[in-house]
Predict the structure.
Amino acid sequence: MKHLLLFVTLLFSFLLITNFILWGQNQEADKKAQQEDFDPAKVEFETYYIVFLKKGPNREETDEKKTMEIQQAHLNHLKWLGEEGYTLAAGPFEVPPEEDLRGIVIYPGEMDKAEVERLATDDPAVKAGRLRVEVLKWWTPAGNIHWPKKGSASK
């Protein structure tokens, strides 16, 4: 499971960095044309819901066995979301322990925000108060992100 989460985190980081690099290159190459011919009505975007997982109010649980059970249930929930096609990517961030931000889950933008919020708050770690969620809609130029098809990732 650690390897899967690491893979997902690295994949998301790669996609995000690639997205910004490509977008930046396109911006530089087309800067003059965009200034002269820019029509916002013609820009196509794709949308996603980004769910930020942050430290919850009950993060400092002292019962290690209970903490591990909640963590395993959390990981199972994320796995289920991916297997059922609700999410595109999920994984933790490498941050200092004092930081609130713990991880991210990406949902397709076609979903209803209320459904995303429901699925995110159904997470056992959120229910237990170890995590809390923040749901934001993210817009990115169409075609900049290409998600691998299920089963196509190399092992």
The chain is about 45% helix and 20% strand.
